[in-house]
Design brief:
The protein has 95 residues and is α+β, with helices and mostly antiparallel strands. It is built from 1 helix and 5 strands, in the order αβββββ.
Length: 95
């Protein structure tokens, strides 16, 4: 009985965490990719978590290999966070 309850509670928690994570994705268009600098320029919608309006700006990327997956003109979704004081793209996915 306890095992069943624990398994159900764990499943519900994991599902709610993944739903919250997906809610942080922001739609954007790739304007420029600068692999040498580890940066990407995005024309993006509002980033609620960072209290940022829609605009075009340059972001650092947490992992330079993310830049291999995108090119100018791609429509993407991404997550960003403050990492060591810089706003950094932490996740990229195709839109």
């Amino acid at each position: 009985m306890f095992k069943r309850f624990f398994a159900a509670a764990l499943t519900a928690t994991l599902l709610s965490v993944s739903a919250l994570a997906d809610g942080n994705m922001v739609k954007a268009e790739v304007v420029k990719v600068d692999k040498a600098a580890g940066k990407v320029t995005l024309k993006h919608g509002p980033i609620k978590d960072l209290d940022m309006d829609a605009m075009t700006m340059v972001f650092r990327v947490a992992d330079p290999s993310m830049l291999d997956k995108v090119k100018q003109g791609d429509r993407i979704e991404f997550e960003a966070a403050r990492v060591n004081g810089a706003i950094t793209v932490t996740k990229i996915g195709k839109h």
